[in-house]
Amino acid sequence: MGSYLGIYTILVLCLLGYSANAEVFTAGGPPNSDITAAVLKAFTSACQAPAPSQVLIPKGDFKLGETVMTGPCKSPIEFTLQGNVKADGGSTQGKDRWVVFEKINGFKLNGGGTFDGEGNAAWKANNCHKTFECKKLPIVGVSVFNILTPMALLKMI
């Protein structure tokens, strides 16, 4: 029992140390502003950081254009989405992708926020039910493990 408690204590201290030492790069702005450039700048800085880091989108409502975040990175990155991010229809219309995380070792996504792809606007122009020649837009390469925040708190609509 004593060794079990000791291992548990060490694990908790390691998790706390990771969070406390992580450098935080915040990507936000005024309400309903486009944060695409801020997110890409924060990700680039976090990706180049020599120690574990965090990209934070704080609480609030924001717009986001097509965003591709590609590794490899120098250390693990935690992407924390606390706000509500909506697709910017002008910059994403006609594209096959919106938000992409790829080739990032040690990547974590959490925060309780919402990725809103603004599907209602896209479906108005959708001809799939007539032509049957539409591409499927799958969520690809997503692995979920070691979750500290229940996935129910992170929404993708």
From TrEMBL:
Gene3D superfamilies: Single-stranded right-handed beta-helix, Pectin lyase-like. One of its GO terms (biological process) is cell wall organization. InterPro entries: Glyco_hydro_28 (IPR000743), Pectin_lyas_fold (IPR012334), Pectin_lyase_fold/virulence (IPR011050). One of its GO terms (molecular function) is polygalacturonase activity. Coiled coil: none annotated. Residues 1-22 form the signal peptide. Pfam families: Glyco_hydro_28. Its main location: secreted. It is found in: Secreted, Cell wall. Keywords: Cell wall, Cell wall biogenesis/degradation, Glycosidase, Hydrolase, Secreted, Signal. Belongs to the glycosyl hydrolase 28 family. This is Pectate lyase superfamily protein domain-containing protein.
